[in-house]
Amino acid sequence: MKKTILFLLCFFIVSFIVADVTFVTVDWSATVGGCTSSPSFGAYNWTTGHFLVCDYNAAAVDKVRIASGTDGSLTGAKLNTTGLNLGSLGVFAICVTKDGVIYGATDIKSDGVTAGRSLIRWANEGAVPTQQDPAEPLGVAMEFSRAMDAIGTGANTVIGVTGTVVVLEDKVTFLTTTDGLTYSVTDNTPVSSLASERIKQGVALVPGMAKVYGTKADGSGQVCRLDTTGVQLWAASPGFTPPNSYTAPPAGFGAAAPIGYAQGHNAVFVIGFLQTNEYLSVLNGDTGAIITQVQIGQDIGTSGYGTVELDEEAGVGYFIARSVTANSYVCGKISFDPYVIPTNANVWNIYE
Length: 352
Prior knowledge:
The chain is mainly β. The protein has a single domain (23-350), classed as Neuraminidase, CATH 2.120.10.30. It contains one helix and 26 strands. It has one helix at residues 2-19; strands at 24-32, 41-45, 50-54, 64-68, 74-78, 93-96, 102-106, 118-122, 130-132, 147-151, 158-164, 170-177, 183-188, 202-205, 211-215, 223-230, 233-236, 255-262, 267-273, 279-284, 290-295, 306-311, 316-322, 329-336, 340-342, 348-350. A hairpin with a 6-residue loop joins strand 23 and strand 24 (329-336). The longest helix is centred in the first third of the chain and has 18 residues, at 2-19. The two termini are 29 Å apart.
């Protein structure tokens, strides 16, 4: 009898704690102006606490601006562009590893003459950059960087680059390295006419590279998950069926753009564009079902290329995207419970 009472007491205490959890909140958000053009992409640097903003149409010295991670305002500092050969779209996308190494790309080879695209590397925010043309052992060129993401550090770094070269060629090329300095294209998702296999506007890599998440393309906004069975063998996950594009909350989240993945929670964080107060939605990483939603207080517009960066141990994240307002970007900070793994809207498990 005593054991039964004790069990019921523990059950009700745990039930109360779990039911009372607010899984994700927006700590602050802002729409920030001051760029030469409408920024194309951005990233958060965990080692400095700064946002990096791609002002791709600006003068060469202003191509990547540095913004405060406290309120999103421009600091006046920029990444060094000395020696870079940049194409017509400048540094269009950017990503940062957890140890502060920064990668970007431009739409021309490193000689500044040959058509193609090249990878840029900054060792840190104060470094002089290097530029290279990733090797193509598979005969596949790196996509032009509409969106980028990176996982791992040093020799274990993997970079995902999305792009569009011809109609329907929305895919991801994966770059790997053996020394943390020189990169090769070692895998790519397929060129496909299927909406469920096209990734362009945002990409989120997953450790182990058995799957990748992304968002589709300018205004169509589908969230995709591709699973792999080997090099260049990728297909849409049959069980991952998130709400269709432009479905209004709470049934959906609007057309998706910025995206991030929390492995320990198996959750996809995605911001959709639909109205002037956009929704950040958390999706089940297996099914795509909506777990929870919160409005960010800003309008990212239909060309809202961007990313959601997450630190699961700390339970914090940062988002940045192109704004609907000219020459502006949207950014903000979120908090979430690092000790709770959501599985769907009604079931919550304690993080062990």
